[in-house]
Amino acid sequence: MRKLRITELNRLTPEEFKVTGKIEVVIILDNVRSLHNVGSVFRTADAFCIKSICLCGITATPPHNEIHKTALGAEDTVSWKYFEKTEDAVNELINHDYRIIGIEQVENSIQLNHFSFNASEKYAIIFGNEVKGVQQAVINMCNDCIEIPQFGTKHSLNVSVSAGVVLWEMAKKIHPKLNA
């Protein structure tokens, strides 16, 4: 086995990425305070060709050196929009026929491994604040809430880790390159 060089990975250029087809998924960051988490979500969104990110409330926006440290340029390739209130982002996406899904531990949540993602639907996936999670007012606007199964002593994952887990599970089911 030989480790591949970066030139052998056949990655898209930033220009190619901007015009390539995206999966119909919008990420909503609800008051995410860590700039490193924001950057990490940008990088994950780039990896899976996510349509865009809504940065809401106290969530920082590019350009910012601390976001760039983990995004490594994905903040320049992934489309994003800022909303002062998360509810405004959710309402905009509801008006564009997105299915709103909170990633949160709630009554009657659906375990991630039991959720059926459908390539013909559009999804808005909400990830919340590192301490408080997704606001209850925003949960009230969701069609569904998904919970990531966990088996240890901790009751939560880092928001950027949660994004990676959920987006990978979605990509496995709806990304055309994984389902060809």
TrEMBL record:
GO cellular component, alphabetical, reads: cytosol
GO MF assignments: RNA binding; RNA methyltransferase activity
Task: Give a Pfam family name.
Answer: SpoU_methylase
Q: Which domain of life is it from?
A: Bacteria
* BP terms from Gene Ontology: methylation; RNA processing
The record's Gene3D superfamilies line, in alphabetical order, gives: 3.40.1280.10
Q: Where is the tRNA/rRNA methyltransferase SpoU type domain?
A: 25-168
Give the UniProt keywords, A-Z. Methyltransferase, Transferase
Looking up InterPro entries in the UniProt record yields:
Alpha/beta_knot_MTases, rRNA_MeTrfase_TrmH, SpoU_MeTrfase, tRNA_m1G_MTases_N
What is the name of the protein in this document? SpoU rRNA Methylase family protein
Write down the species. Alkalitalea saponilacus
